Amino acid sequence: MEEFEPKIVGFLCNWCTYAGADLAGTSRIQYPPNIRVIRLMCSGSVDSIYIMKAILEGADAVLIGGCHPGDCHYLNGNYKARRKIVLVKNILETLGMEKERIWIRWISASEGQKFADTVREIVEETKKLGPNPVAQRWNI
Amino acid sequence: MSRVGVFICHCGVNIASVVNVEGLTEFASGLDGVIIAKDYKYMCSDVGAQLIKDTIKEYNLDGVVIASCSPRMHEHTFRVVAEDGGINPFRVEIVNIREQCSWAHDDRDKATKKAKLLVNAAVAKALLLEPLEKSKTPVVHNALVIGGGIAGIQASLDLADDGFKVYLVEKEPSIGGRMSQLDKTFPTLDCSSCILTPKMMEVGNHRNIELMTYCEIVSVEGSIGNYKVKVRKKPRYVDVEKCTGCTDCVNACRMKGKVPDEFNMKLGNRSAIYMPFPQAIPLKCTIDPNSCIYLRTGKCGKGPLCVEACEAGAIDFKQKEEIVDINVGSIVVATGYDLLDPSSLYEYGYSRSKDVITTLELERLISPSGPTGGEILLPSSGEKPESVTFILCVGSRDETQCSWCCRVGCMSALKHIHLLREHLGTGVEINLFYTDIRSFGKGYEEFYRSTRAKEVNFFRGRPSEVRCVSDGLKIDIFDTITGKLFEIKTGMVVLVPALVPRADSEEFARIMNLTRSRDGFFLEAHPKLRPVDTCVNGIFIAGCCQGPKDIADTVSQASGAASKAAAILSKDELENDPMIAWVDPVICVGCGICVEVCPYSARILNEVTRIAEVDEALCTGCGACVSACPSNASVHKSFTKQQIIQMVDSII
Ligand SMILES: Cc1cc2nc3c(=O)[nH]c(=O)nc-3n(C[C@H](O)[C@H](O)[C@H](O)COP(=O)(O)OP(=O)(O)OC[C@H]3O[C@@H](n4cnc5c(N)ncnc54)[C@H](O)[C@@H]3O)c2cc1C
Ligand code: FES
């Protein structure tokens, strides 16, 4: 059987984590290609729907990446994201889905290594969890 | 249906050595809505740009996807290329297949597969991208500077010299701020008024500056390029057109010598009608309504003596408060700082002994124009002190009070040591209790060394309680350098209190829509890269209102803020970034959640229609309101929910 390769969707803020991911590349730091990034202006603009949609479409994990607390380019978007993620996790749990698939991380524009390490960590942890059952259950 | 073209860049070998560019191009050309897909060695080169422009024309495209380096590199370049090619610049979507693909992965197959997914998602978004127009706001070519300390003075002069009309609003009767209270300034020991007075005069005489002293900001509306500001002009009860500044009234006043003088830190007294200090600008008297007998009781002896004394007939008890409207394009806030009131800290004895004073009080005692005419005398007895002890970091670097460093305390105390030696000679004993000596500025460390040579007893540590004994003050200090406990008997204690935000800074921040950092000072847009910008476009901060700093830093920041403000004023129109929020009036139910969520106060709930509106000049396009909107009425242009959801759909 082919080895399970988790599909990870990343919603990254333009100013910190997206730039951190760029820096990983510029520094030629290698990380698994499992992550597919969607750039948003701020982690605070991540809508719960995006996360739910990704999970329902069969993403095995979702990463929300923003600036460190206190550093959001728009003052406090990351705090809003943090609160929202707690809610989304609760909803997922109520629906019988694994909230462990949702990750939120603060990675600054200078933390290329941290971005790569984070992706690697998510890939490893998600491999332990196995494929997102929603996809199989609904045969999407 | 849109007609999208996909352009894939090899970036030399940077992309092509890992990603199978030919395979990717073939994949892209098969996607729904894609009319043509092309690859080229360097898309960002002139030849690449021409290729894009020609292809747009040839295939009559109305949107493009460019798979290349990060959008943080060349998004702007490609928007311009697309516009030159004849399509709306906001119908461009960049796919990052270099930084986030070819440079980060070495497995050719996996990287190519990922690149395909990314292109797939970008095409899905590009098909939904709306053309956007940059709206324009006309600019009012006037500036407002709030606060007339050295920061506000510098900013006003810079702006006025650039040719802009400046309104300088100062709440006190004179400009000058804290610097006018200082005697000499570190590290050069030049006299504060000698360097400040000429600048104050220049402000007073500048034809481009309208000086509004004894005034306060009531409200600020509008946005960058066009702010409408209401200013309250408090009554001086003196007609400034007539007042010649002779101060005959001050000497005639029945309250002469009875009202504590704020400028002299209440170490001396003034009259009810007063001139704040001899170099005041404007050089006009003001009647303090709280101490004027006539204003308080409606009668003053047989008639107010000031009226009698004033040959110019300038006294006018009928003056009323006025509200003045001004219209400006940009604003510099320079409202400065306060000192922590040490009476809240029992252990320092400030409220228990007259001979415990603050550094600012010492400045007034040293100043030749101060209450003692420049003689350093004990406030309790009027005698010369035999021993003076400085306590640094009073309330500063203290988690229970102010966690921050005041940045000028060490240096001001070192300065005072020089001045005390000058005034009191070698006979006086000087002690100094410090935590660390912070002498970080240019020439500061050298200044510190020269103070060390002034026969001063330096003790490193925080002192015990200041005890009042019959013939002076006693303090215990455990010196952490020698590891010994000392008991110091001294005549005068000088406290160096923390620098704190102005008492009214919370209220003022609310009026201006500014945010404050945890310490209460006004928050800059970015601590390193945008230190004079605020979260409100068109409003800048300078000087100690942003955080404690010395005069040199204050002045540089003021010039920085002024040039930022001038950059706005020098334009006729401002282009607004169109990738901002928009509200669909048909869907909006007027719940007002977005108004609360917006960190920039760019959301208004229209009182009449009960629908939320976006102030396009204030919106920064963060998208917080959009994800908070429960009815999906809020739209983040170029990042709409449909666009992102389509991307999610096509990326998995
Ligand atoms: C004891 C002491 C000694 C010092 N010695 C030195 C020294 O030797 N060398 C040195 O480099 N630095 C020294 N400093 C630091 C220096 O005082 C500051 O760097 C400088 O005064 C900051 O200027 P500013 O314009 O930012 O603030 P301020 O001087 O505080 O000016 C602010 C002005 O704004 C006005 N204002 C406030 N609120 C409003 C409002 N809401 N509306 C309208 N107007 C308002 C105030 O009335 C004031 O005029 C010393 C500080 C202290 C405490
Ligand atoms: S901009 Fe990075 S989290 Fe807000």
Describe the secondary-structure layout.
The complex is a heterodimer of chains A (140) and B (652).
Chain A: E1 8-13, H1 17-26, E2 35-40, H2 48-56, E3 61-66, H3 77-94, E4 102-106, H4 112-129, H5 133-137
Parallel strand pairs in A: 1-2, 1-3, 3-4
Helix pairs in contact in A: 1-4
Chain B: E1 4-9, H1 21-29, E2 34-40, H2 46-59, E3 63-68, H3 71-85, E4 92-96, H4 98-102, H5 108-128, E5 136-138, E6 142-146, H6 150-161, E7 165-170, E8 184-185, E9 190-191, H7 192-205, E10 209-213, E11 215-223, E12 226-233, H8 248-252, E13 259-260, E14 269-270, E15 273-274, E16 286-287, H9 293-297, H10 305-309, E17 322-328, E18 330-333, E19 337-339, E20 356-358, H11 359-366, E21 387-394, H12 409-424, E22 429-434, H13 444-452, E23 457-460, E24 467-469, E25 472-479, E26 484-490, E27 492-497, E28 499-501, H14 505-512, E29 539-541, H15 551-569, E30 573-575, E31 581-583, H16 593-597, E32 603-605, E33 612-614, H17 624-628, E34 634-636, H18 641-651
Parallel strand pairs in B: 1-2, 1-3, 3-4, 6-7, 6-18, 7-10, 18-29, 20-27, 21-22, 21-27, 22-23
Antiparallel strand pairs in B: 5-30, 8-9, 11-12, 12-17, 13-14, 15-16, 19-28, 24-25, 25-26, 31-34, 32-33
Helix pairs in contact in B: 1-5, 2-3, 5-18, 6-7, 6-15, 11-12, 12-13
Flavin-adenine dinucleotide binds at residues 146-152, 169-172, 177-179, 182, 185-186, 216-217, 334-337, 339, 359-360, 363, 408, 412, 415, 502, 504, 508, 543-544, 549-552, 554 of chain B.
CATH class of the domain at 338-500 in chain B: Alpha Beta
Outline of chain B: elongated
Spatial arrangement of strands, main beta sheet of chain B: 10-7-6-18-29
User: How much is the radius of gyration of chain B in Å?
Assistant: 32 Å
Counting DSSP H or I runs of 4 or more residues, the number of helices of chain A is 5
Strand content of chain A: 15-25%
CATH arch. level architecture of the domain at 338-500 in chain B: 3-Layer(bba) Sandwich
Major beta-sheet overview of chain A:
4 strands, parallel
By DSSP (H or I, 4+ residues per run), the number of helices of chain B equals 18
Which bin fits the share of residues in helices of chain B?
25-40%
Question: Main interface pair?
Answer: A-B, 44 and 47 residues
Helix/strand order of chain A: EHEHEHEHH
- Please state the structural category of chain B: alpha/beta
Beta-strand content bin of chain B: 15-25%
**Low-confidence spans of chain A:** none
